[in-house]
Design brief:
Layout lengths: L1 H11 L4 H15 L2 H9 L6 E3 L2 E3 L3 E3 L10 H5 L5 E7 L12 E4 L4 E4 L8 H9 L9 E6 L10 H12 L5 E5 L14 H22 L5 E5 L5 H14 L3 E4 L20 E4 L3 H15 L5 E4 L5 H10 L3 E4 L1 H6 L2 H10 L10
Parallel strand pairs: 3-4, 3-13, 4-7, 7-8, 8-9, 9-10, 10-12, 12-13
Antiparallel strand pairs: 1-2, 5-6, 6-11
């Protein structure tokens, strides 16, 4: 399988990145069915984790952004992910930023994107989710919500509450994306009274929806890696005060450390992949200390190997998500991480 993916990747990398992205998802959708899908799932070690009150079949998740419109949930689920996060979705459809907006940096095993929450809107998103079976089969499905690009920041909470209402019944958990660098001003929602007000209103809506649906759906907030220590402490304090259920750390970075001088390194957008690993892991470590175990952390950012995933767990994460590593390494990375993070059998020696 690793050899097959390596050969396929050579062909895909000859295409423009966004074309290759769409083509590979369509190919997975067409081929990963029936016995092949069952075989792929069976090759991933079963290693359940209890996080946010949910049972994750294994600690490896797919990060949001790969399947923005929730069209390929079951195909991706057949690869063995314990959880899949789809979106980011906004209330209304929007085209995102002008192309080209996705760039590979192969020498650094990195990607720069400035997609801009391109998606078909929450109504089509929910229709697609309803056609998937991943949750029925025991997978954990995260639905990632955002705001439309033309919604003023002072009204952003309305977009998030609207999306929460629409996705709530269909989600295992809901991720609140306030950290993409590709929607103007969005990261300002991570700070101060604006952040506190956003979480307060989302929490109140979550409680109302839990009563309405008879089911509590956890809320997780996704943050940026480009945070100072005092900002991390302030965010952690607000998350705890508002009773948020989880933290996803981190999104892409505006920094360019590790890619200087490479083709496309000066493109605007968020950098993901190997160069963001160290910074993202340090942010996880600092949040872990600031949260003192009161909120679980889902770590994402630069995971290219099982050792990288273990480093995130060692830094304080309960679960990990992959994105760029999946593009460069292929489905074998899921099995590699699952095997590495599975509990080791205890052997009592005699002597």
């Amino acid at each position: 399988m690793s050899l097959m993916y390596a050969l396929a990747r050579q062909g895909l990398f000859m295409l423009p990145p966004e074309t290759a992205h769409e083509l590979s998802l369509e190919l997975m959708h067409l081929t990963l069915r029936g016995s092949l899908a069952r075989m792929m799932r069976a090759r991933v070690v079963d290693s359940p984790r209890e996080v946010m009150g949910l049972t994750f079949p294994n600690p490896i998740g797919l990060a949001a952004g790969l399947d923005k419109n929730a069209r390929y949930i079951d195909a991706l689920g057949s690869l063995g992910f314990g959880s899949i996060e789809v979106g980011t979705v906004t209330p209304r459809p929007q085209p995102g930023n002008p192309a080209p907006r996705l760039f590979r940096l192969p020498k650094a095993r990195a990607i720069i994107n400035r997609m801009g929450f391109n998606n078909l809107g929450v109504e089509q998103f929910i229709s697609n989710v309803e056609h998937s079976r991943f949750r029925e089969q025991g997978g954990i499905l995260g639905l990632n919500i955002g705001k439309n690009f033309d919604t003023p920041l002072e009204k952003a909470v309305d977009d998030y509450v609207f999306c929460l209402r629409r996705v709530y019944a269909h989600a295992s958990y809901v991720a609140v994306n306030i950290s993409s660098p590709n929607t103007a001003g969005l990261r300002g929602l991570q700070h101060g009274d604006v952040f506190d007000d956003l979480l307060s209103k989302l929490k109140a809506e979550q409680q109302r929806l839990a009563e309405q649906h008879g089911r509590y759906v956890p809320l997780a907030v996704k943050v940026a890696p480009d945070l100072e220590a005092d900002e991390i402490q302030s965010i952690a304090d607000t998350l705890r005060r508002q009773g948020i259920d989880g933290l996803i750390a981190t999104n892409t970075t505006l920094g360019r450390e590790g890619v200087e001088g490479l083709p496309h390194a000066d493109e605007k957008g968020g950098l993901s992949g190997a160069p963001v690993f160290a910074r993202s892991t340090e942010v996880v470590r600092q949040f872990s200390a600031a949260l003192a175990g009161e909120l679980p952390i889902i770590a994402v950012g630069g995971i290219m190997s099982a050792a990288d995933a273990q480093a995130k767990i060692d830094a304080g994460a309960s679960l990990v998500q992959i994105y760029t590593g999946f593009i460069y390494q292929g489905p074998g990375l899921i099995r590699e991480i699952a095997a590495a993070l599975a509990p080791k059998p205890f052997v009592c020696g005699l002597g």
